[in-house]
Every structure is written in C-alpha cells, then in structure tokens.
C-alpha cells in the first residue's frame, strides 16, 4: 500500500452514478457455486482439517486492484457508486469485498446448512464454531493481503460505521484500519490518481 485516506462524513457526500458496478464485475467474482458442497465434503473426508490454500484460492482469491474501499456493509450502494466514479474518472480498479468475494454470512449459512445442521433442526455448536472461526480468520487474512497489494486505502466513515463518539461499530473495519496503519508503505505500482 502506498497511501491511506480517512474520509469523514462520507454519508453527506453526494455521488451520482448510473453505472452498474455489480453487473460490470460479475465476471470478477471468483466464487465457485460448487465450492460449498466440495468444502463440506473436504471437511468430512479430512476429519475437520481445513485447507487454507483451498479456501483462499476458491473463495477469497487475490485480485489486482488499485484501491481498497473500507466501509460499512449498509453503505454498499453508495460505495458502489463511488467505485463507479473512480473507475470511470481515473481508469483504476476498485476493490469492494462483497462484490468480488460475496457475503461471508451467506457463505457461512450455506456451509452451516450443509455441514452443521443436525436431524433435529438445530446446528451442531462445535462444528459451527469451528467453521465460523476458521473462515473469519481466513477472510481477515485475505482482506489484509488485499490492503497490502492495493496502492490506495480509503476508509469511508458514515453513521453506519462509527458511533457519535467516533468508535467503530464493525470489528471488520477495525481490523482493516488497524492493518492499514501498520502495513509497510511503498511506491505505487501503477498510475497515481
């Protein structure tokens, strides 16, 4: 990473975009629909051992991007509009985790339903905690790798991401911001904005 920015009051900024970022980047999502079934079979056949490399490759692959946008999930539409603007105006590629990798909670629900659901309709507590904690750690690592690889990191502060006293609401944003302050700065790999 080269530079990080803290954008205060992002929710007060007007952004107009008629582009459809999600449609434009459907091909960029590397989420394999069969991965959940394969992942569940893999866990069962390997006595609960998870291959981090398999998950990183199939669910959270590294993507070449110039800008990382850290934001609250509830601000996704506005963040997508910002990404449209940046990509059109500056011809750069913007990383939004939910666009490229999908939603971690949707993935967890699918895995829980396939691997952790018991015949009585309840989830197996031990299996569910195992899968959730492992996937969260792997996602966190993947996010850090993306922050390090991009040239620019933007945190978009809104009422959805911080409380009035400036405390962060999301542990994911906290992790991204913490890592962004610690990553080694380097010269940008591509064009500057």
Structure commentary:
There is one protein chain. By secondary structure, this protein is α/β, with parallel strands linked by helices. The protein has one domain. A four-stranded parallel β-sheet has the order 1-4-2-3, with helices on both faces. Strand 2, helix 4 and strand 3 form a beta-alpha-beta unit. Helix 2 crosses helix 6 and helix 7 packs parallel to helix 8. The two termini are about 15 Å apart. The relative contact order is 0.21. About 5% of the residues have low confidence.
Distance N terminus to C terminus? 14 Å
What does the overall shape look like? globular
> Which whole number gives the mean pLDDT?
84
Main sheet attributes: strand count, strand direction, barrel closure: 4 strands, parallel
Query: If strands are numbered along the chain, what order do they take across the biggest sheet?
Result: 1-4-2-3
- Mind telling me the C-alpha Rg? 18 Å
Helix content: 40-55%
Q: If helices are DSSP runs of H or I spanning 4 or more residues, what is the number of helices?
A: 8
Q: Low-confidence stretches at least 5 residues in length (pLDDT < 50)?
A: 27-32
Compute the number of structural domains.
1
User: How much of the sequence is in beta strands?
Assistant: 5-15%
Number of strands: 4
- Quaternary status of these chains? single chain
Q: Pairing-aware structural class of the strands and helices?
A: alpha/beta
Q: Give the SSE string.
A: EHHHEHEHHHEH
């Amino acid at each position: 990473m080269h530079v990080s920015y803290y954008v205060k009051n992002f929710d007060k900024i007007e952004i107009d975009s008629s582009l459809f970022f999600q449609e434009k980047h459907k091909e960029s999502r590397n989420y394999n629909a069969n991965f959940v079934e394969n992942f569940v079979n893999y866990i069962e056949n390997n006595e609960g051992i998870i291959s981090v490399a398999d998950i990183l490759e199939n669910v959270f692959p590294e993507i070449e991007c110039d800008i990382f946008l850290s934001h609250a999930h509830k601000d996704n539409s506005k963040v997508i509009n910002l990404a449209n603007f940046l990509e059109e105006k500056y011809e750069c590629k913007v990383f939004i985790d939910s666009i490229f990798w999908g939603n971690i909670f949707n993935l967890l629900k699918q895995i829980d339903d396939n691997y952790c659901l018991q015949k009585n309709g309840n989830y197996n507590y031990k299996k569910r905690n195992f899968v959730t904690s492992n996937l969260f750690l792997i996602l966190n690592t993947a996010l850090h790798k993306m922050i390090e690889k991009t040239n620019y990191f933007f945190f978009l502060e809104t009422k959805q991401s911080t409380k009035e006293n400036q405390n962060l609401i999301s542990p994911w944003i906290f992790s991204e911001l913490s890592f962004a302050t610690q990553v080694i700065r380097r010269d940008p790999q591509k064009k500057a904005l």
